[in-house]
Amino acid sequence: MSTGKLSENIKNPPDDQMHLRLYILGNSMQSTRAVYNIKQLIKQLKLENCKLEIIDLSDDPRLGFEDHIIAVPTLVRLSPLPVKKVIGDLTDPNPVIETIGLEQFMEINIPPDLKP
Amino acid sequence: MTKQQRSKVQTEPLLVKAPTGIMGIDTITCGGLPKDRVTLVAGGPGCGKTIFGVEFLYRGATEFNEPGVFISFDESQQDVLVNASSTGFHLQALIDEDQLIFLTIPLQDEVIAFSGDFSLDVLIAQIGAIANQISAKRIVMDSVDSLFTRFQSSDKFRLEFSRLLTWFRNNNYTVVVTSERGENKITRHGIEEYVADCVIVLDHRIVNQLANRRLRILKYRGTSHSSDEFPFLISDTGLSVFPITSIRLDYQVSRKFVDTGLPWLNKSLNGKGFYDGSSVLVSGGAGTGKSSLASFFVAATAARGERSLYFSFEESGDQIVRNMQSIGCDLGSGIKKGLIQIIAERPSFYGLEEHLLSIFHHVELFKPRTIVIDPITNFLTMGNAYEIRSILVRLIDHLKSSQIACMLTSLTSSTSNDENSRVNISSLMDSWLVVRNLLVGENYERELHILKSRGMNHSTRSLPMILTSEGIFLADRKHLER
Asked: Would you call B115 an interface residue with chain A, using a CB distance cutoff of 8 Å?
């Protein structure tokens, strides 16, 4: 996990890249699950060109103001626009796939249990 | 006292209150909002919820040394600041002085989905972090409906919201949460379930095409409170709530007197004048000298170094000062010293009730010892006599309990019987003076008659008076007595 400061080059990735940011708070069960779930999803769907940032707000929760984060965990799709969010530990992959629009980044072989 | 009784007395917690400084609120709540607890303020759009929250924080910082955090879920900081300015609260200065922090949490434009478990701990942490920045003690959340809507009012969210409120209590913040009214419930999302300590409801209705604002304490745990609705105004000094519902006849009666401004009149009233805190009605036709009598009363108050408020509904302040100068009554110097204030407004610009409430408001602000309302009959052009009477009753009652002597003038038409003053409030008044123009030979003479003056042995004979450039005199003794 990297606690990142929001630097310029992360904010504006190239257009064909999916830029995701997962906000968590500390080492709670929810945080751990969310990290695991999103990483699993990315792996299982064999997503290419996907940049995942993980930001732990426990050092300074005010870092969440920029993306208007009031609940954790929150997964934010920063790119491509428009911005979309999924709140929760991401246990159910379907809302994630639908909202974040992962279909376009998926390989042909979608595991059957992950079909929306 | 038995041992059991003694220990019971020791363990009952004291309900501490946080004064708001909002006019009337601390009176009707007997001290303010519950300290370190959450108060819900519910009302429809435009009811004044946001202004309530703003004023709560503004006065908290400027009068009670308690900085605050304003969390806005709907409006931008800019919009709130602009609206607050129009009600007299300049928030930017507070922000610059670290007495107020604004937190805007826009919720509308996002696409949000939910998957799995979440918590509002980060919001809690954020509020805690910014509150610590300025050692805030007060927090306002305005309004929480969009938060509930955004989170689909789910059970999980409700649980988290409840945790948020508990966190406020455990960290000793006095909090105001605002919300829209619901149809079957107090609030649309049933927020009242979570706010156990105090619920205030604001209402804004149109009755007979006139706006009426009402405030009610729906619930205040641990305090006996009135369940009445109180009318209130929003002006350029914020909210003003008027605790004027029930009328009790238990005010203290003064044994002191106030100068009428005219020695011969003082003499005719038991020798000394009107009773302090009493109400006087002066009725008469046009041009009979009612306003002149009122002006001498006001000038006499200022001469004692006390404040007097003159509400004029016919003439402008300048006109009055000039006219009174011509009969030897000096209002100008009192005005210069800030002891006299003339408020001249045509009642037709306001709703009847709002106008009378504005009298209360000015009285609260200026804190006069005497007031004049000249004339009250103007109110007849708007409402009906019954409505006027009921509000005037409350006004007079309020003035009595504040020990403020008032003189009301009433214009009667020359064809009607003077004793039946059109707005029939004479029975409420302590003293009633009638002035008439009588044709005596070829001249008109003014005559004053004291119809009644409670509790004193007053003259009952007619008192002919003349208005000269040196004052008002009794006509038949003008060479000997003033």
From this structure: yes
**Complex ipTM:** 0.81
- pLDDT tens figures, A93-111: 999 988 888 766 555 445 5
A70 and B120 within 8 Å at the Cβ level: the answer is: yes
* Beta-carbon separation of A89 and B115 below 8 A: yes
CB atoms within 10 A of CB B307: 21
Please choose, from the candidates B132, B141, B138, B197, the residue with its C-alpha nearest in 3D space to the C-alpha of residue B173.
B138
**DSSP for residue B113:** E
Question: Does the beta-carbon distance from A85 to B113 stay under 8 Å?
Answer: yes
Is there a contact between B122 and A64 if contact means CB atoms under 8 Å apart? Answer: yes
* pLDDT per position as a tens digit, B311-348: 998 889 999 999 999 999 999 999 999 999 999 987 66
Q: Which residues of A58-89 are buried (b: 16+ CB within 10 A; e: fewer)?
A: beebebbeebbbbbbbbbbbbbbeeebbbbbb
Q: Closest partner residue to B121 among A25, A34, A60, by Cβ? A: A25
Residue of chain A whose alpha carbon sits nearest to that of B114: A87
Query: What average pLDDT score do residues B192-205 get?
Result: 89
Closest Cβ–Cβ partner in B106, B111, B119 for A71: B119
Strand, coil or helix: what is B110? coil
Whether this prediction's pTM lies above 0.80 is answered by no
